[in-house]
Protein 1
Amino acid sequence: MKILVCISNVPDTTSKINFTDGDTKFDANGVQFVINPNDEFGLTRAMWFKEKQGATVHVATVGEANVEPTMRKALAIGADEAIRVNAIPTDGFFVAQQLAAVVKEGGYDLVIGGRESIDYNGGMVPGILATLLDMNFVNTCIDLEVDGTSVSATREIDGGKEKITTTLPMVIGGQKGLVEEKDLKIPNMRGIMQARQKKLNVVEPVDATNATTDKKFDKPAPKGAVKLVDNVEDLVNLLHNEAKVI
Amino acid sequence: MSVLAYTESENGKFKKSAFEVASYASAVAKQMGTSATAVSFNADGGDSLGSYGVSKILNISDDKLKTFNAKAYALAIVEAAEKEGAKVIIVSSSTDSKFLVPILAAKLKAGYVPNVVAAPEGTSPLTVKRTAFSNKGFAHTEINTDVSIIGVSNNSYGAHENNVSASVESFSPALSEDDFAVKSTEIDKVVGKATIADADIVVSGGRGLKGPENWGMIEELADVLGAATACSKPVSDMGWRPHGEHVGQTGKPVASNLYIAIGISGAIQHLAGVSASKTKVVINNDPEAPFFKAADYGIVGDAFEVVPKLTEKLKEFKAQNS
Ligand SMILES: Cc1cc2nc3c(=O)[nH]c(=O)nc-3n(C[C@H](O)[C@H](O)[C@H](O)COP(=O)(O)OP(=O)(O)OC[C@H]3O[C@@H](n4cnc5c(N)ncnc54)[C@H](O)[C@@H]3O)c2cc1C
Ligand SMILES: Nc1ncnc2c1ncn2[C@@H]1O[C@H](COP(=O)(O)O)[C@@H](O)[C@H]1O
C-alpha cells in the first residue's frame, strides 16, 4: 500500500495572531510553525500501517521553502520521502489541485489529510482532492483499518460515531482518535539523523486558480471585564435578565 | 437564478440550523434581487421554511437517502442547484455539512467559504466575513467563481422570521449505485440529548473535577438546562469522558448561546474553540485562572459546592418560569 499524508504547516497552537501589510496578511514574525495537529494523528496512523502492513509512506506539502523544517519533522517521525509543491497555499481549491497532481504522479492508494488546518480552518482540501481524483472520501475519521482494498472506518458525527465500509483508493480527513494521544509519534534523535538522508523532492505547481481570496483580516473586539458574582442566585438572575440566555 | 439552502433534517424534522440557513439564504436572495429555494431530504413540513423567507422547497423523499451519505447527498444537491440555476448555495456548519460541502464544491467548481458569521458584505463579487485562526481572527473573503458556497457558522446569524408562501415540490435526483461506495454500517448516537453542535447551552468540565466519578453533577446541571455536556482535552485523553465531548481548537468547536466552564483553566487552545459562544460563565476556585479573562460571568469557588447549588437554583427558577 502506498500512502500519502498531506501535511499543512501551521502556527503553533499557542501562537498569538497578528496581521500585517495593512491587515491583508498573516504576520508570521516570531511565530513557530508545526505540523497541523489533525495531520499529526494521520501521520502516526500511517506509521502504524508502515510497521504492521509494510506500507510506504510519503508526505506532501504545498508551500514555499520555509515549510521544509516541518517536512523534515515528518521525515524524522518516519515518513520515507517528502514532496514539496513549490507554491504559496493561497486557497483550498488551489491546494487540492496541486495535491491531485502529486497523487496521480505517485499512484497512492490511500491519502491521509486532516479534518481542517488550524490556521485558516478551511476543512475542504481532502474532500475536494478526493472528488477531483474520483476517490472515496471519509471525513472526521477517527478509526481506519485496511485489509487488501477493503476499508473499515469510523467517523465522528454530531452526538456520536458512525461505522463505514468502503474501498481503496480513498482519501480521509483525519483527526484526534485516529490514534491515541499517548501514541502520537514525536521525532527521536535517530529519526532526526535519518531524516537528513531522506529525499525531499521539490516539484513546481501545476496550472490552477484560486476560488477565493482573503482580502482583509481583523481581530475580535477586546472583551469587557468579567462580572464576578458571589452566589448562584445572582448568577441565575444575570443569565436571565441581563444575558437573556435562560 | 436563485439562492439554494441545504436545510438539514433528522428523522423527518428540520434541525434548528435549517431555519438559520433558510434565513441566511433568504437574506442573500433579497440582496441579490432573487428568491430562495431549499433542498431537503426526507423532511416533513417543508412549508414551515416559508416562515423564514424560503419560497420553494425541493423535498427529496427516497429510502436510499434515509441515512446520510455525503457523496449521494452532494450529488443530489448539485442536481438541485443546476435545476434552479443557483449561483449561491448556503449550508450549515454541522459535521455532515462539512463532510459533503467539499464534494459539492469540487463538482460545481464553486468557491466555498466556511464559518461565515454575518450576511454578505458585498454581492459582486460576493464577499463574506468568516472566522479564521480558530476564532482568534476574522477574514473578509471574496469568492471568485461563478457559483459560491457559504457555510454559516452555527448560531451566528440566527433564524429570522419572514413569512412568504412556500410551495413544496418533490424532487428525484438521478443517483447510481456507485454514488454509495462509502457505506454506513452502524450509527452509535445518543438519542434525546442535545449535541454540542446543536445545543443552545453547553456545560463543560475540566481536570478540576478530579475524576470521571464526579460527572454526575455536570450531567444534572446539563439536564436542568437542556444542555449538551462537553469537556477539556485532558479529560477525554484520560478517558474520563468520550472523545466526542472534547471541545477546543483540536476538538469540537462550540458556538452556543451559553457556555459554562467548570474546573477548566482556560488554556489558549481551549479558548480558541469555545470563544464563539455568546455568553461564557466560568466556575473555578482559582481567581487567577486565565479563563476569567475571557468570561462574561464568573464564580470563584469550589465546583463541588457551587455546581449542586446552581442546579438547585435553576430548578427553582425553571419551576417559577414554566
Ligand atoms: C496541540 C495542542 C492542542 C490542544 N488542544 C486543546 C483543545 O482543543 N481543547 C482543550 O481543552 N485543550 C487543548 N489543549 C490542552 C490545553 O493546553 C490545556 O492543557 C487544557 O485545556 C487544560 O485542561 P483543563 O483546563 O481541564 O485542566 P487544567 O489546566 O489542569 O485546569 C484545571 C482547572 O480546574 C481548577 N480547579 C481545580 N479544582 C477545582 C475545584 N474544586 N473547583 C473549581 N475549579 C477547580 C483549577 O484552578 C484549574 O484552573 C491542547 C494542547 C496542545 C499542546
Ligand atoms: N498547503 C497544504 N499542503 C498539504 N496539505 C494541505 C495543505 N493545506 C491543507 N492540507 C491538507 O488538508 C487538510 C485540511 O486543510 P484545510 O482544508 O486547509 O482546512 C489538512 O489537515 C492537510 O491534510
Protein 2
Amino acid sequence: MILELRRCILLLTVILSFVGTMTAQTSSSRPKRDIDAVLAAHDKELLAIPGVIGVYIGVLSDQKTPCLKIMLAHPTPESDRDIPKQLEGYPVTVEVTGEIRPLGSP
Amino acid sequence: MRNPWSVVSSLLKSIAVLVALLLSLRPFSAQADPPLDNNHPAIRAAIAVQNDVTDEWMKQPEVLGTSVGIDGVAEPALTVYIDRDAANAGEVIRGLPANLRGTAVHIQLTDKFRAMKGNPHGGGGTSHTARQTPPIQLGTSGGWSKDLANGYCCGGTLGSLVQIGSKQYILSNYHVFESDIVSGGNGIVATNGDPIIQPGLIDVNCTASNAQTVGTLVKRSSLPGSNVDCSTAEVVSGMVRTDGAILEIGTISHLTTAAFINQAVKKSGRTTGLSRSSVSGLNATISVTYDNECAGGTAFTKTFTGQIVVANRGSSFLNSGDSGSLMVEDVATNPRAVGLLFAGSSTSAIANPINQVLSFLGATMVGQ
C-alpha cells in the first residue's frame, strides 16, 4: 500500500514538473510587447531584404491571430533565407504581392 | 546493456552519413549551369510531365491551368492553378501529387482567368468615365489637363470633396494632379492654376478640349516629403456638387473613421467603378516608386508608414486609373471616410489613413 502511494506521488511529481516545463516554454514564446512596437522596431531591417517591399500587421487565416505580414515583389534567395518565421513571439507570414505602384494611369 | 552515449554517438554518425549522401546526390549548382530556357533538360522534363497530365487534370473544372516555372529554390516546377472559389478546391488539391517524375508540383490558388478588356463603366451600369452634366458627382475619371508626355496621356480619379477654410476642393492624389515635375517629354511642369478636367485625358483621346474644367490645381507638394499622396483642385463654381456626392455611393458623412482588420469597405473610381473589399492589414510600411511625369523616368521611391492594406484579388477592388478614390466604410447611408487610395498590385491595395490626409491639408470632408 505504501509502495503504491509512493508510486502515485512519484508519478504526480513527474506530471507536475512536465506541465511546469511546458508552461514555462509557452510563456517564453509569448509576445512581450505590442505588435505595433515590434513592427516599428523591425520594419527597416525587413525592408532591407532584397525582394521585400512592405510589412504590415494582419491576421492569420483564422482571422484573429495577429501576425506580421511581409510583402514580396518577388521571391529572392535572401527572402527565402532571411525572413524569420516569427519575431518577438509574433508569427511572420509572406505574401508575394508583386510591385506596389501608384495606380494613376491605365 | 549498451552505454546510452554509444547509442547517441551511433545515431549522430548515421545522420551525418545520410546528410553527406544527400548532399552528394544534389546537382553541382555551382558549376556553370545552362540557362533555364525551354532547352534546359530539367525544364524539358517538366514540360513533358506537364504535357502528360494537363489534359487529364483539366477535366476537373476546379483546375484552371498549368505552367512550368522556377520555384523558390530555382528548380523547375509544375504549377497547377486551382479556382480559389471552387467549393471542393481542397479535395482537388489533396488529390494532386507533390512531385511527379522528379518535377515538383506546386499549387496556386487563383481567380478565374479573364481577358483584360477594360470596363470603364464599373459594375453597376453607371459610367465613371463619361463626361457628366455639371455639377458633377465625384468617383469619376479626371486629372491634370496637361498630363500628356512621351506618347502617352495619364489620369486618375476625382475622388471626393473636402473643405479648407471657406472653400471646397476636389481631393485626389499627388501623382494624379501634380507629379509632372520635369520639363521632360512635354516641356512643362504642373503649376498652380492649371485646369483639372473631367473626364481625364485618358478617356477623351488625350484631347483636353473634349473634357470640361471642374477645378484649378492647388499644389500641396505632399511628396516626397510627407507621408501622404494627396493633391487638391479648387472647385470651379457650379461644376461640382456642393454636397460632395460620389457616383454609386451618394453623399458621405463629414465624419471619418479609423480602419480595422476585416472592416468592410467600398470605393467609387474611374476604372473599376463601385467595388467592395475588406481591410486586410494595418500600420503598413511600404515602398512605392513614382515617375517624374506621364510615362516618364523614376522621380523617387517613397517609403510610407502607417498605411492601410486592402484585399485586392485580381485587381478587382482597385486598378490603374482608380488612384484618388476615397475609401469609405461599406454602409448604405452616409458612410464615413476611411482612406485615400493611391497604390497597389494585383493582390493588395494601399490607402493613406484619411485622418493623416485631412490633417496634412487642414481640411474636413464635405458630407452630411
